[in-house]
Every structure is written in structure tokens, then in C-alpha cells.
Design a protein that fits this description.
The complex is a heterotrimer of chains A (677), B (387) and C (340). Chain B is an alpha+beta fold. In chain B, 26% of the residues lie in helices and 30% in strands. In chain B, strand 9 and strand 10 form a beta hairpin. Classes of the chains: A alpha+beta (677), B alpha+beta (387), C alpha/beta (340). Chain C: One of its GO terms (cellular component) is outer membrane-bounded periplasmic space.
Chain lengths: 677, 387, 340
């Protein structure tokens, strides 16, 4: 008789001997993990610490002596701190400074006059102390003597310390704080609009029998192929002060929130559409049959069946769009006018003011909404999976003339919106001198005559995209394989998976800035890659790691989980299984990852804008710089070059995928035609 | 009292090690497996002889697959030892153990042809090409797929794919063959067919085999011995007839075949009181006066009429106590037999389900509403301690 | 044959020596000079000094300055060439520049030379603040051209003025610093308060306002003279206006980075940079160059651009930069809604 004893006998849990296979897998996973640590975790950590790195005037570090009227008879040395205590020349808040802060030493002397014959001596009390005499930097503990006219040009310099004063300063600067509100507002509005449009599109494409579905699906994905700067440029030409449809705005300016929202809707539409469309396409026809049999009205059915069924898709899409908009930098840069946005603030602080510490502060703040969105998205995704795995009968729409016509009209409007933006850019790129000379010319394609990097930038982008695609898909796939197919080692796998999910929550600008802090440190042994193509590849692969990782993971999860067990029983080492079976079977997913990385490497601006060097300028950055310099038409032309390149890459991908499938995946086609005996 | 198919085995199951003269091929002792707080396997002791076909049988979640995976090294046990062919394999990684395995999902490599699938393991151990080719064609012959070698798995039916999986597992001539619900994904007809093929193949090759299944019919028809498992523990180990005829627990009785169950009280000797009626029952070790469950299988109930003895092939009834009046409430035709629901005043409200052969029903003119007499044979009325 | 062997040996030695000499010094030169012009400068310089090779690293002034400051502890450049003097002063205050008095430095306009002796930087040319005024759009709106900075605050220009943001643009900063220097602090800020009312947008770069005026996106672009002349040449309907109060200006200057391994070659380049020959080349784009008497008039620009320039105290500007920008940001950056 078995008696239920629910307690394990005492002792330690048995551990399996680790096979050479496992050792190798763990080693490979460790290597990819180290990659993520170096390319992501450490730079972010360095950036966080940078945001706490402040500059303060340490008045104890300076000592003064004052002479009498004759220029002799020196007073006893007195520290600046003591002087300041005596006459309160500088309030506490003045002592917190940026990297380029200066304090005029003469202000510490109440009776200072640059005409007086009194002479002054100043020295540092430590080697750290430094001050400016005029524009000359002076360090050290030697006494330096100045007459009063020169002493008025003595400026104390701050020294490094650690503290929260950067954050204090941030939150006491109204223009910066307003950016938080602005960014959240814009992201919310854009999300609402995009979701509505994307839902309408997805609904029309899944639930109607209208014509031209294929074409609409293609058109709506176009925005993925262009940098987010491009819709901004298109809007300038469409609705700017010389815009074709300026009058439609009834006097409102496109520069500012309006432009950002319209542009955001453009470039986030495909992302939202794909997610919602997937959610709608798995709808269960049985629910609709039930609704019909209950004689529910269409309206009621829509709200009680359709919307709840797609709710996880909607939530997920909402967070994706929200994150994209709030972290995007290109669009508000081009069309945002004076409307402050967080991502642009980072750029302004770093490039405009060389205030890296404040850039780091804004980065930290921008990480918060992105992380929140990311966390909520992960939680809903988990439930969505459960929804997907339920057995459902696919819904087959029936033709309804009026409804189909309405759907067609709506989709046409969206298509016109998308094509209109792209078309406008192409026209602008070909016009000689908008709006005064509308004759056609290729002048705007003479990139070598503009700032921004010329045609080399375009070729660099292609190089970057190719390297990112090849190297990235290998790293990502290998990493995903090790996570998915390694036994035990739960802690390591969990940590790895978390690292792999992290890039999704890190805005490109933040990553780029973190890279400056980390790689541009001469003490870093990897400092050598700073300013090379390698750091751009590293940054781009890391920036787009998560989606690629999830794609690889999905493909790997679809494989029979027992392949490894079978291979083990047949004594086949894992790498043989990997190269003979796993990799060939997952080839379509691998190609998918490669093209994803390629397209994104072509269009990304934010991740690389801090990292490119003169000989590694990129097409997307060139657009930014040309637009910055006011060369908008060439910027549009370069944007269209990226677009055509991505279209070509997509076509090539389709052809290569088909050829490869035909050659190496014969089993797939036969699988479709197989007749079970 | 004797019964018709009285097998040679003793009434109580005998543990395997008493029977075997040398060390068992596979020896599991004190095996536990826990996932966090959940105990999936509790104190498993089991011996498997060389060349034996053993089935792990039980409902889902009983731990049978966990046990198989522990033997394969795919999920290592928390406590306890496993020895195979005299070697302690408790902590060895799967690749260092000696077995072939077949899964419910077949797990055939989809991008390799049937031949390549079977040859993969052989190529890996560096056998000459010609030897591999001939071994592959032998194996394909063995599983009756000689002409299909160039096809891809997706081009074969489920049953064919499972045969390929079997051939692949056998290719490297493992000492142990592990089958994890190999037939569950197949439809009924193919399943029955493949059942026999696997059994025959196993007999031919003499490979020690462990199969996990939740299908009692499969276990009864294929296994030399069945290990019935429930809630992480072994309920009973025995030959199919032992398990069927002499279930040691109510769980086994109920899981293998069906039973009518009555709350009862143990009487003197081989007697039991159901309701207020005494019945003679099978030998048991339970103390008099204990509250127990009395069980009888529907198929064991004998309809009593003029030709009853002949119809059921049983001797004349010896104990009048076990003969009860019953009223036919309902009848359901199930092809081979009639499932009949009876009510009997002596059993109070508890309905009695009996399976009567078509033959008996015709001869005794049993129909809904008939009043008949049925007999619960003494040897077939089993007592179990309350669960 | 001994002769040919000797000859071969000598030839090899000569070749080795000459290639070695040829690659004797490679200078990494950070610059913000227009990309189009760089090849021209490099070619001319390398022809005169075949033993020195220039590797340009080019970016806009803001980016270049950020890059140089970021590399403070581990400089990558040998020479900074054609970067705003204000930026070089920032570098100087970090102790990053190697003081050096180039040959003939006394020949230069003293406004273009660092005040310290020896100077840490020497100027090459100047860009001068100017207004780009779109005549076509102005006519449509019935506007009259402004003649002074103060004119820009007239209500008629409301929403028609674009200027660079001093926080991100060197041109923007030179405008603000010039107003503060010419009007005095108090008056300058109240001028900017009034100007702010008319501003349609603050751009990130200094040339953009002019290009926006050229394409009619705005009527008046506060910018500098060079992009205006260029746009006008390529057909834009704009006038270039130098306001009556005088214009702020910025010198493009050159300096040696302290600690360079190629000090001699760097000095050679700086010597060349202030030569008459080089200054003549700067004159292709810039109306004002450091070498007196060299500049010839530029198409679409008046002859007397140099006279529009105010007295500019670079040191004051550099030392007060942080304070000015903070004040500016406090006053105007908070502007959340653009004017339509």
C-alpha cells in the first residue's frame, strides 16, 4: 500500500553531472551574455552614475592673500569659504555648477575695485583646485599674484563631486520640466489617434470583403522603411509656411504638437496595425455566431465581442506606440518647433550645450516611462499568448456592400495619407528650389556638396546595415538558442533573458549617450572601437536586440522540444544538431531577423547620433544634419534613398528567402501538399 | 470457489527481484522528485529485468512521464538512485546513458529525409557509409517502410512517422528503449495496429522496453508487467492479469476496467455486509466490522436465468447469498455487450451496472422492465480499505 | 653584376627613405569648415608640405566642441582648424591648447589673435551676423525691410522672424553675446524680450534661419552672411541686411592641441593657416579674413562687411557663456507653443 508521504527524505537534491555539451552551451551563452553586459548593462550603469556626477565650487580649495594699498604687507591667507561666510557673496545655490561653471574671485572681496593699487594672491590648497586667469587655466598650490585689474579676471572653476544636484537643477528649470508633460501629452494623443486609425484599418482588412487588401497591407507598412525624420520633412512641405496644403490648417502651425502628432501617427501606424491585425485575425467565429443567434445588433456585437477579443492586442499596441513616440527624437527635432520634448532635450543638452551630465539626467527621466510601458506590455503579452493558444474557428467575413465600401474608403484615405507623405518627399527632393523654382533637377542629390556626410554617409549606412544584419542575427540567434535549449542553469538563463529584454525599454538616445560615457573613457580597454564602425554596429545590434531575440525565441519554441532529448539519446552533440537541424529549420526566422535589423539600421537616428565619426557618418544622421543646416530638400532626397534601399532590401529578402526555401527547405513545400496515409 | 481463467500466478503480486536469478537490468531505488513544494515522485522502487516490456500506467499527472524522464536523465530525480546494467547512472547526463527514446510528438527532424533521420545517430558515431546504408535499410524493412526512405517526415502519416521514430531510436542498438506515450497522437485504428507491431518488434529484438501510457487497454495488451502509478507513487506492479484480476487498491480496480462500488462493512470470515444484506466475498485481510468499499466489475455480474450457467460459462451458483433480485432500469447497446443498469432492493438505492453478453441478453430475454436475478460471484466481490 | 646591385640597393634605400619622409607626419585635424572646401585646403597644404598628411575629422561646431571636450583627458586631435574662437576659448580654459605664436602672427588683424602671449589660438576668417530677408514673401505680407536689430521688435514682424537657439547654435550665441555687449545687459534683455514676441521659431543651427527665409518658410532669418550669399546665388529671392547697430561675429580659428605627438607638423600647419595664401583661399567663402588687405568682395555681399563687425570680447563671452545661456533658457526656452 502506498502511503502518501509528502516530504522528501532529508539530503541534498541530486545534481546531474554536467556534460561537455552543457559546458559548451553555457560557455557560448556566457559569451553572448557578456556581450549584452558590455554593450548594455555597464554603459547604462555608467550613465546612471554620470547623472549623479556634479560640479561644485569647493571654496575650501582656494586661499587668498591681500596686500595693503602700497602693494606690500600681505594679509594672512584666508580661504574663499571663510570670505564667503563673512560677506555672503555667493548663496549656496550658486555653488552648484555645471562643468563650465565659473565664479569671479573678486566678488569675494566687498571693497574690490579694479582701479585700486591693492594686489591679490591666490592659490589652491590641493592639486585638484584650478582657476582661470583670464582664459588661462591655472592649477596647483603655488601662490599666484595679480594686480587688481587682472584679479577681476580670475575665475574659480568647480570640481567634480557626487550628488543629486543635477536632478535638483533639472526640476527647477521650467523649460525642462515642461518637456516631461509635453512628451507624455504628445505620446498619449498620438497613441489614441494611431490606435483608432490602426484599429479601423485592421478591422477593415480582417472583417470586410473589400478589394485591394494586399495593396493596403503593403502600403501601411511603408513607414517602417523610412527614418522618423522623413514624415517631419514631408509635413514641412505639405503644411509648412510654403506648404501645398497650408490653408487646410486654418492658420495653425504645423511646427509643434500638431506636426509631432501627425508625424507620429505616420511612423507608428505600421507597428500598431500589425499587432492589432494579429489580435483581430485570431478572433473566434463561434463568438460571432453566438452573437448573431442572440440577435445582437452589429454595434453591440462590436463592443461585446470584437473589442474585448482584441483587447490585449490593443493594450500591447498602445504601449508600443506610446514608447515609440515618447522616445523618438527625429520627428520632434524636425517638426517640433519650440515644443520641448524629452528626447530632443537630451540632444540639445549634449550637442548644443556639451552638458553631458544634464543629458544623463534627462536620459534617466526618459527611461522611466519607457520602462513602465515595457513592464505593462510584458504583462499583457503573457496573457495574449494564452488567448492565442485557445482553439478558435477562424472568422470568415461575409460580403456586405455598404460596409465594404466604407472600409475601402477608409483604407484609401489612410493609403493616401501614407503615400502622400512619401510622395511629397520625393517631389520635394526633385524640385530645384522650392517654392520659387519648381523645375525638376537632381541638384538635391549632390550630397557631397552639403554638410552631413555626402554620398559616403549613404554607403556607410549600407555597410552598417549589412554588418548589423549579419552579425546581429548570428549573435541574437545563438543567444536565443542557448537560452531556449540549455537545460538547468536557470539562474543564468533567467539573467540572460532579462538582459535580452532590456534593450526594448532603453531609448536609442539614452543608449547612445551611455556609449559615449562608457566607451569614450580612455581607461576602457574597448576605447579603441570609439569612433569606428564597430561601435555603431554594436550599438545598433543592441538597440534592436529584443525584437530580434523574441523572433528567434518564437521560432525556436515552435521546434519540437524533444529534438534535444532525441539528439542526446543518439549521442549527437548539440552543435551538430544545431547546424544540421535547428538552423536550417529556423532559416526563415533568421532571414526575418536579418531584414529587420537591416531596415532598422538604415533608418535609426537616435541610437547613433552621438556615436558616428567623420568617416562613419550615416545617411539617417545626414538627414538630421542637412535638415539642421536648413538643407531640407537634400534631406528629403537622402530619406528617399533610404526608402528605396529598404524597399530593394525587402524585395531581395523575399527573393532570397524563396530561393533558399526552395533549395534547403523542400520538406516545407511537401509538408503542405502531403496527404496523410 | 474457482474461477474460469484461473491463472497460474499466485494471488498476490510478487516483487520482481524475488523472481530474477541475477541482478535486474534496471534498478530504481528510493526515487523522489520534487518541483518546489510539489512532490511528483515519491519513494519509487522498481526493478526491470532484461528483455522485459514494462508499462507505466496511470492518469495524467501521476508521475509516470516524470519517472521515464528521470530514467532518461532528461529531468533528474531529487533523491534516489538508478542503476542500469550494473552501472550507477543516477547523475549521468542523458548523452552518457544507453537508451533510445520515442516521443508522442515523434520529434523527427523535419528537414531530413527518413533515411537521414535514421542515419543521423549512426553517422555521428562514425560508422562507415556502407554499414550505415545497410543498417538503415534493415531498420526501414523492420518497420515496414522500405520504400519511403527518401521522403520527408511531413509526407508520412502519423503512424508511419512513429515507426520512423522507433527505427531511429533502435538504430544505435540501445540497451533500453523508452517510449513516451508513443501512440497517443494517433487515431484509434492506427493505434491498435501499431500496438501489435511495437510489441512484436520488441520481442524480436529483445530490447528492454519501458513505455508510458495512460491507456489501460494499451498497457494490458502490450506489457509483460504493468506499473500502475497514482499521485507520484506506485500503486501496484504486476502482470496484466494480476492487475486486472487482483487489484490491490481501489484506485487500481477503478482505473483498470470499471467497478461497481458499495459502501460496506466487513463481516465474519469472507463475508461482507452491503446495506443490510450479507454477501460472500473474496479472501481478504481486513478486520471484521471495518467500514470498507466492496467492488465488483460490471462484466463479472452473471445474469441468472434458466440457461444462466451455460450462457456465462460459469458453474452453477454455490452461494445463494450472492444471488439478488434486480429490476432492469435501462439498457445501452455497446456492440459487444449490453450495458445494463439494474436496481436491486437488497443493494438499497445504489444502482448496479452490469455488462451482459448479447448472447445472454437474447437467451434470457432481458429487456428494460424485466425482473431478473443476477449473481455477484464470490471471488469477484473485492473488498478495499476506504481511500 | 656589382653595379646593378649597388644601384638597386641605392634605389631601394632612396624609395624607402622617401616614403618614410612622405609619411613622416600625419595630422589628425578637427574642423568645422564647410565640407566642400576641405579638399581644396588639404591639396594646397600638402603640395606645399609633402611630408605632412592631413586627416580631416569634420563636424558642425557644436558637435566638434562636444567631441573635443569629451576627449579632454585623451585628446585624439593634433590640431583644431576652423572652429569657432569661442569654442577654442572653452578648450583653452580646460588647458587643452598648446600656446604657439605662428610665423608672421603680427601681420594679422589683432582682433583675430588670442590676447595671451604666446597666443593659444589664431583666427582665420570671420562670419558676421546678418539678416536674410525674403522679398517675395515680404511683399505678399506688405512688410518693409528692417534696417536695425531694434526694428525686429516691430509688431508687423510678429511670427515672421526665425533665429538660432543660442543654446545649440554658435551663431545664436554670438548674436546674443553681441547684443549684450553693444546694448548693455539690461537693455539687451528687454530687447530680446520684445524680439521673443516676434520669433516664430528658434532653430538648432545658425544657417537654418537663412535657408528658411530663402525657401519662404519665414520672412526674416537671423543668421550670418555666408549662407545668405550662397542662397541668393542659387536663386533665392532674399536680401542680406546688416543691421545698423553693428553685427556680432565669430572668428574661425586654429589651435594646437596640447600634448600632440606631432608638434612640429602642427606648427607648420598653423603657420600655413595664417599665411596670405591661405587667407586668400578663405576669401572664397568668407568676406572677412584675418589677414588685412586680402579680402576681395564676395558676390551678393557688400564690400564693407568687416566694418559692420562690433568689438567682440571673446574672453568675456566665454567666461559669461554659462550664465548667459542659463538666463536665456530661463526666459525663452520655456516657450511651449509656437507662434503661428
Amino acid at each position: 500500500m502506498t502511503l502518501a508521504v509528502d516530504f522528501l527524505p532529508p539530503g541534498r537534491a541530486l545534481r546531474q553531472q554536467i556534460s561537455d555539451d552543457d559546458r559548451l552551451k553555457r560557455a557560448v551563452m556566457f559569451v553572448v551574455g557578456i556581450y549584452l553586459v558590455i554593450a548594455l548593462a555597464i554603459p547604462l550603469f555608467v550613465m546612471l552614475s554620470k547623472s549623479l556626477s556634479t560640479y561644485t565650487f569647493d571654496l575650501h580649495q582656494f586661499e587668498f592673500q591681500v596686500s595693503d594699498e602700497s602693494g606690500g604687507g600681505w594679509s594672512d591667507p584666508v580661504t574663499a569659504a571663510a570670505l564667503n561666510t563673512a560677506i555672503a557673496a555667493f548663496p549656496e545655490s550658486d555653488l552648484e555648477a555645471g562643468a563650465d561653471g565659473r565664479l569671479q574671485a573678486a566678488k569675494l572681496f566687498a571693497d574690490f575695485s579694479f582701479r585700486s593699487p591693492v594686489r591679490y594672491r591666490i592659490r589652491g590648497t590641493s592639486e585638484e583646485a584650478h582657476f582661470l586667469a583670464g582664459s588661462q587655466l591655472v592649477r596647483g598650490t603655488e601662490w599666484k599674484e595679480y594686480d587688481s585689474n587682472h584679479f577681476r579676471r580670475v575665475m574659480l572653476r568647480p570640481s567634480r563631486s557626487v550628488g543629486l544636484s543635477n536632478f535638483t537643477e533639472y526640476f527647477s528649470t521650467p523649460s525642462l520640466v515642461r518637456s516631461i508633460k509635453n512628451s507624455v501629452m504628445i505620446a498619449l494623443i498620438s497613441t489614441a489617434v494611431t490606435l483608432t486609425v490602426a484599429f479601423g484599418l485592421a478591422y477593415a482588412l480582417n472583417r470586410s470583403r473589400m478589394r485591394g487588401k494586399g495593396a493596403f497591407k503593403l502600403i501601411v507598412t511603408i513607414p517602417i522603411l523610412v527614418p522618423s525624420l522623413l514624415p517631419g520633412i514631408a509635413l514641412v512641405y505639405l503644411f509648412g509656411n510654403q506648404g501645398v496644403f497650408k490653408d487646410l490648417l486654418l492658420g495653425h502651425s504645423i511646427y509643434g504638437p500638431l506636426g509631432i502628432v501627425v508625424g507620429s501617427v505616420f511612423f507608428t501606424l505600421p507597428h500598431a496595425f500589425l499587432i492589432i491585425s494579429t489580435a483581430l485575425s485570431v478572433a473566434d467565429a463561434r463568438h460571432y455566431e453566438a452573437a448573431t443567434s442572440l440577435r445582437a445588433s452589429r454595434w453591440r456585437t462590436f463592443w461585446t465581442v470584437t473589442v474585448p477579443g482584441a483587447r490585449y492586442g490593443l493594450i500591447s499596441a498602445a504601449f508600443v506606440v506610446f514608447t515609440l513616440v515618447i522616445t523618438d527624437f527625429g520627428l520632434p527635432k524636425v517638426i517640433g518647433g519650440q515644443y520641448g520634448m524629452l528626447a530632443v532635450d537630451i540632444y540639445k543638452q549634449v550637442i548644443g550645450q556639451q552638458n553631458f551630465e544634464m543629458g544623463a539626467v534627462v536620459s534617466v527621466i526618459l527611461l522611466i516611462p519607457a520602462f513602465l510601458a515595457f513592464a505593462v506590455d510584458r504583462m499583457t503579452q503573457r496573457r495574449q499568448v494564452a488567448l492565442l493558444s485557445a482553439r478558435a474557428v477562424p472568422f470568415e467575413p461575409k460580403p456586405r456592400r455598404g460596409f465594404d465600401a466604407a472600409c475601402f474608403a477608409f483604407c484609401s484615405l489612410v493609403a493616401i495619407f501614407v503615400l502622400g507623405m512619401i510622395g511629397m518627399c520625393q517631389v520635394a527632393a526633385l524640385v530645384k528650389f522650392w517654392p520659387y523654382d519648381l523645375s525638376l533637377s537632381l541638384r538635391n542629390y549632390a550630397f557631397d556638396l552639403m554638410d552631413g556626410g555626402g554620398w559616403d554617409a549613404y554607403y556607410n549606412s549600407i555597410r552598417l546595415a549589412l554588418m548589423t544584419a549579419v552579425i546581429g542575427s548570428l549573435i541574437v540567434f545563438t543567444g536565443a538558442y542557448m537560452v531556449e535549449k540549455t537545460k538547468g542553469f536557470g539562474l543564468g538563463r533567467g539573467a540572460f533573458h532579462m538582459l535580452a529584454m532590456l534593450p526594448m525599454a532603453v531609448p536609442g538616445m539614452v543608449l547612445g549617450l551611455a556609449y559615449i560615457f562608457f566607451f569614450n573613457n580612455p581607461g576602457n580597454p574597448l576605447h579603441g572601437i570609439y569612433g569606428t564602425m564597430a561601435i555603431l554596429v554594436l550599438c545598433t545590434v543592441t538597440h534592436f536586440y529584443t525584437v530580434a531575440h523574441l523572433t528567434a525565441l518564437t521560432a525556436l519554441k515552435q521546434l519540437d522540444p524533444e529534438f534535444e532529448a532525441v539528439a542526446d539519446s543518439l549521442k549527437i552533440p548539440f552543435y551538430k544538431l544545431f547546424f544540421r537541424v535547428t538552423l536550417p529549420v529556423c532559416l526563415p526566422a533568421l532571414l526575418e531577423i536579418a531584414i529587420y535589423l537591416f531596415v532598422n539600421a538604415m533608418t535609426t537616428v537616435s541610437a547613433v547620433v552621438f556615436l558616428y565619426a567623420t568617416d562613419t557618418k550615416l545617411a539617417s544622421v545626414a538627414i538630421l544634419n542637412m535638415d539642421d543646416a536648413g538643407d531640407i530638400a537634400p534631406a528629403a532626397a537622402m530619406g528617399m534613398m533610404i526608402f528605396y534601399t529598404n524597399v530593394a532590401a525587402k524585395l531581395l529578402h523575399a527573393v532570397v528567402a524563396r530561393l533558399l526555401l526552395a533549395r534547403t527547405q523542400g520538406w516545407r513545400q511537401v509538408a503542405q501538399t502531403a496527404v496523410p496515409a | 470457489m474457482k474461477h474460469a481463467t484461473a491463472p497460474a500466478e499466485p494471488a498476490m503480486p510478487v516483487s520482481a527481484n524475488r523472481q530474477s536469478e541475477r541482478r535486474p537490468f534496471l534498478e530504481i531505488s528510493g526515487l523522489w522528485k520534487a518541483y518546489g513544494d510539489f512532490v511528483a515522485l515519491r519513494d519509487i522502487d522498481l526493478q526491470v529485468k532484461e528483455g522485459e516490456f514494462v508499462c507505466f500506467l496511470g492518469p495524467s499527472g501521476c508521475g509516470k512521464t516524470t519517472l521515464l524522464r528521470a530514467i532518461a536523465g532528461l529531468d533528474i530525480q531529487s533523491r534516489g538512485a538508478i542503476r542500469q546494467a550494473g552501472q550507477d547512472i543516477s547523475r549521468l547526463p542523458p548523452a552518457q546513458r544507453d537508451y533510445g527514446i520515442v516521443f508522442q510528438s515523434y520529434a523527427l527532424f523535419p528537414n531530413l529525409t527518413i533515411e537521414k533521420n535514421i542515419a543521423f545517430g549512426l553517422e555521428n558515431i562514425g560508422r562507415p557509409r556502407r554499414e550505415i546504408a545497410s543498417r538503415v535499410s534493415d531498420l526501414l524493412d523492420l518497420v515496414g517502410l522500405s520504400s519511403q526512405g527518401r521522403k520527408y517526415p511531413a509526407q508520412l502519416s502519423g503512424g508511419q512517422q512513429q515507426r520512423v521514430a522507433l527505427a531511429r531510436a533502435m538504430a544505435i542498438s540501445p540497451g533500453l528503449l523508452l517510449l513516451d506515450e508513443p501512440l497517443s497522437a494517433l487515431d484509434a485504428k492506427v493505434r491498435v495496429h501499431l500496438r501489435h507491431e511495437i510489441k512484436e518488434l520488441q520481442r524480436k529484438l529483445g530490447v528492454t522496453t519501458i513505455m508510458v501510457t495512460h491507456d489501460q487497454e494499451e498497457a494490458l495488451s502490450m506489457a509483460d508487467r504493468i506499473v500502475v502509478m497514482n499521485q507520484g507513487g506506485i500503486e501496484q506492479v504486476g502482470t496484466p492479469t494480476e492487475i486486472y484480476r487482483h487489484p490491490r487498491t481501489l484506485f487500481v480496480a477503478d482505473f483498470i476496467g470499471e467497478t461497481n462500488q458499495f459502501p460496506a462493512t466487513v463481516g465474519k470470515g469472507a463475508q461482507v455486509e452491503i446495506g443490510h444484506t450479507r454477501f460472500a466475498c473474496a479472501e481478504h485481510l481486513l478486520p471484521a466490522g471495518a467500514a470498507v468499499v466492496a467492488a465488483v466489475r460490471p462484466a463479472d455480474i452473471i445474469p441468472h436465468g434458466a440457461d444462466a450457467h451455460r450462457a456465462t460459462g460459469l458453474e452453477a451458483v454455490g452461494n445463494a447469498d450472492n444471488l439478488i433480485d434486480a429490476h432492469v432500469e435501462d439498457m445501452e447497446f455497446l456492440g459487444m455487450f449490453w450495458r445494463t443498469r439494474l436496481s436491486a432492493p437488497r443493494l438499497k438505492e445504489t444502482p448496479l451496472v452490469a455488462d451482459f453478453s448479447t448472447n445472454a441478453v437474447r437467451r434470457l430475454c432481458i429487456e428494460i422492465g424485466s425482473a431478473i436475478q443476477v449473481e455477484i460471484p464470490q471471488e469477484r466481490l473485492l473488498l478495499f480499505a476506504k481511500a | 653584376m656589382p653595379f646593378s646591385k649597388a644601384f638597386l640597393g641605392a634605389a631601394t634605400a632612396f624609395l624607402l627613405a622617401s616614403t618614410a619622409a612622405y609619411a613622416e607626419a600625419e595630422l589628425t585635424v578637427y574642423t568645422s569648415v564647410e565640407a566642400v572646401d576641405l579638399d581644396r585646403y588639404k591639396e594646397t597644404f600638402e603640395k606645399a608640405h609633402p611630408d605632412i598628411k592631413i586627416n580631416w575629422v569634420r563636424d558642425s561646431t557644436g558637435v566638434m566642441t562636444a567631441k573635443l571636450l569629451a576627449e579632454k583627458d585623451n585628446p585624439q586631435a593634433d590640431v583644431v582648424w576652423g572652429v569657432a574662437a569661442t569654442s577654442l576659448l572653452l578648450l583653452k580654459s580646460e588647458g587643452m591648447l598648446e600656446p604657439y605664436a605662428p610665423k608672421n602672427v603680427e601681420a594679422l588683424d589683432p582682433r583675430f589673435v588670442d590676447g595671451d602671449k604666446p597666443p593659444s589660438w589664431v583666427g582665420m576668417d570671420a562670419y558676421v551676423a546678418a539678416l536674410c530677408y525674403n522679398t517675395v514673401e515680404a511683399e505678399k505680407l506688405g512688410l518693409t525691410p528692417p534696417t536695425s536689430w531694434k526694428d525686429l521688435t516691430k509688431p508687423e514682424y510678429k511670427g515672421h522672424v526665425v533665429m538660432p537657439n543660442p543654446n545649440s547654435s554658435g551663431t545664436g550665441f554670438l548674436d546674443v553675446s553681441a547684443w549684450l555687449q553693444t546694448f548693455g545687459e539690461e537693455e539687451a534683455w528687454s530687447f530680446m524680450d520684445a524680439l521673443h514676441e516676434n520669433i516664430a521659431a528658434y532653430t538648432h543651427s545658425g544657417s537654418k534661419p537663412c535657408k528658411m527665409a530663402a525657401s519662404g518658410e519665414t520672412v526674416i532669418g537671423v543668421s550670418f552672411e555666408f549662407p545668405g550669399a550662397k542662397a541668393k546665388t542659387s536663386g533665392a529671392p532674399i536680401d542680406i541686411i546688416f543691421p545698423a547697430e553693428g553685427s556680432g561675429w565669430e572668428a574661425e580659428a586654429t589651435a594646437i592641441i596640447a600634448g600632440t605627438a606631432n608638434l612640429e607638423a602642427a606648427k607648420t600647419l598653423v603657420d600655413w593657416s595664417i599665411s596670405k595664401e591661405a587667407n586668400e583661399m578663405y576669401n572664397v567663402g568668407y568676406a572677412v579674413v584675418a589677414y588685412p588687405g586680402v579680402a576681395k568682395p564676395i558676390e551678393n555681399l557688400p564690400d564693407d562687411v568687416a566694418e559692420k563687425m562690433i568689438e567682440n570680447d571673446f574672453e568675456w563671452a566665454a567666461n559669461n557663456r554659462a550664465r548667459i545661456l542659463k538666463e536665456w533658457q530661463k526666459r525663452y526656452d520655456a516657450k511651449s507653443e509656437p507662434k503661428s
